[in-house]
Amino acid sequence: MLGEGIIQGLVETARNFFGSYVGKDRLTTVQYPEERLPLPEASRVFPFLLYDGSDAEKGLRCVACQICEKECPPRCIHIEKSKDKKPDFVGKAQAYPAVFDIDVAVCMSCQICVEVCPFDAIRMDKQFELSTTDRFGGLLWTKEQLAKPNEYYRKIHPTEAAETDERRAKELADAQAKAAAAAAAAAAKAAQPAATGEPSGNGASAVPAVPPKPSKVVPQ
Amino acid sequence: MVAGGTADQVFVNLDHWIVGHTPGPLHALVSILIAVAAIIVVFAGLFALTTVFERKGLGRMQNRYGPNRVGPFGVLQPMADAVKSLTKEDLVPRAADHVVHYLAPLVLVGIVFLTYAVLPVGRNMTAVNLDAGVLFFFAVGAGTELAIFMAGWSSHNKYSLLGAMRAIAQMISYEIPLILASVPVIMTAGTLSTVAIVEQQARYSSTLAHWYVFTPWGLAGFMLFMVAATAETNRSPFDLPEGESEIIAGYFIEYSGFKFALFFLAEYLEMFAVSGLGITLFLGGWSAPFSFLTWIPSWIWFFGKLLTLIFAFIWVRGTVPRLRMDQLMNFAWKFMLPMTLVVILSAGIWHFLTIDVVGPKPLGAVIRWLVCALVIVGPFITLARGLERGRRIEKRTYRFAE
């Protein structure tokens, strides 16, 4: 019958119209700046630098190996290596970035820097409100702006963070065990100076434990 | 029938009071100027309100909020829109006919405001009480086609010309059912004066008013009138002249800034005017539906009915998708035109089936109603079948695509 479909449509729009004043299911808009939906855990926008402990300068994991700088497709990372060294989390002396800048406007959120980092030093953030009124200074984020504590990482990406923490704890334990073994061997060596000459497997005991990971990734 | 209380006549008395303070020879001029100013202010204000309520209403129909940022609940949105359209650059294409391009929006708005002259917006509240008011309305209203074609032609743009051609075809096609749908009212009322037509409907037998929409031919005529009015004012689903997805904005594609706003204003004013005429012809103008409600001022009744019809327009816009050109023409010539003729016939039967023919009151009235309704429903079913014939959806066969 002529007009039947129109009446059905009118009923549907009327139900939408009046239902929008009654229930939430007919008015699904989230009023963005005031109310927000929780972001999915896997969401990622822009990288940040991780540090351990409370001091961003001391605990920064980055060793300025510059792998991410070389891998970055749009070349948005700029790193200058330090001249001096500081101990990393297992106590080994490592360089650190004197300058670490990322250009927000250039980054394409590909996460390749995170994939290649052998030191778990760079991760993706969920922060997506990156607009600024200063397009020259405001879009270039320095080391100080990028550095965020490990607790923050645990908060935004709990699963990933737990996995990383577990691996790093194991590395630390391994390194400590190795150091202890080396110390024990050195002590044993010192205890029996009679036994000389034969270089044993523990001959390199003066070098503290080599972290196993860096040797894995050698992209150069 | 009460002659109208102070609340009812407040604007009329204000008008008389102001006129009384001017020298005698100027009385007529001042009175007309006040009426013009009142029409421009009230209906332009109504336009501003309608734009924001339309956007909010459409939003609700589409499961979203409308504009709700400017002012409380977004009611100041029209101000922001006005500032925006006033500050935009006014572009005129180099190849355009500058004079006609400039005149088109002004002519359109001017013509549309002219039609308000004969609308009775309340008791004793008609700017001009013409003997041929309805005729004046249609005659002046037809001028909008000229303005639209001026806009489409002078812009020197293929889209605008296409839009203007569509507008002309559509408006001429729907002008006929629009006028024919109002013929039964003129026949029954025996007058072309809008004021007299409303007064005819403002009588009450027992409690019910004599609105023409309460008769079968009036109901059908009102429906047909409103459908034709939707097409006349280029409102969705008959907005082919400005179909965004096909010809971008149609006849006003080359207009920007305040000229564009004028087109927008004229479109809405046209909608109010034709709704106002529909109210005058079928819904009893400023009269109350029941005699015990006559204490409510007449202008409240008129604007209440007007807002209801505006909501109906918005509702239809939020529901029905745009027609195709052939569907539009088929509907006008194969359905609307014959139906209006049938409604005229039904009105004639209604006129002659008086109490002497069908018998005394309750039963006689029902028989009269049913007979006249049947005269309309029969052809409606036949014509609807005719429209639907040839619309069977069959499996398409493609020669080259498969």
Summarize the structure.
Chain A is α+β, with helices and mostly antiparallel strands and 220 residues long.
Describe this protein's structure.
The complex is a heterodimer of chains A (220) and B (402). With 220 residues, chain A is an alpha+beta fold. Helix content of chain A is 35%, strand content 14%. Chain A has a domain at 46-149: Alpha-Beta Plaits. Chain A has helices at residues 4-22, 56-59, 67-71, 112-116, 143-146, 150-156, 158-191; strands at residues 46-51, 77-81, 86-87, 93-94, 97-103, 122-125, 140-141, 147-149. The longest helix of chain A is centred in the last third of the chain and has 34 residues, at 158-191. Chain B has 402 residues and is mainly alpha-helical. Chain B has a domain at 90-295 and 321-388. Chain B contains 15 helices and 2 strands. A two-stranded antiparallel ribbon of chain B has the order 1-2. Chain B is globular, with a radius of gyration of 23 Å. At the A-B interface, helix 1 of A face helix 2 and helix 15 of B.
Question: Features of this protein?
Answer:
heterodimer; A: 220 residues; alpha+beta; Alpha-Beta Plaits; 3-stranded antiparallel sheet; 7 helices; 35% helix; disordered C terminus; B: 402 residues; mainly alpha; two-stranded antiparallel ribbon; 15 helices; 65% helix; globular
- Average of pLDDT of chain B: 86
Topology as H/E string of chain A? Answer: HEHHEEEEHEEHEHH
Q: Counting H and I runs of at least 4 residues, what is the number of helices of chain A?
A: 7
According to CATH, the fold-level topology of the domain at 46-149 in chain A is: Alpha-Beta Plaits
- Global mean pLDDT of chain A: 82
Instruction: Measure the end-to-end span of chain A.
Output: 75 Å
Q: Biggest β-sheet of chain A, characterized? A: 3 strands, mixed
Radius of gyration of chain A: 27 Å
The amount of beta strand of chain B, in percent, is: under 5%
The main sheet of chain B comes to: 2 strands, antiparallel
Query: How many strand units of chain B?
Result: 2
Helicity level of chain B: 55-70%
Helix/strand-derived category of chain B reads: mainly alpha
Tally of separate helices of chain B = 15
So what's the oligomer here?
A: heterodimer
Class inferred from helices and paired strands of chain A:
alpha+beta
Question: Percent helix among the residues of chain A?
Answer: 25-40%
The amount of beta strand of chain A, in percent, is: 5-15%
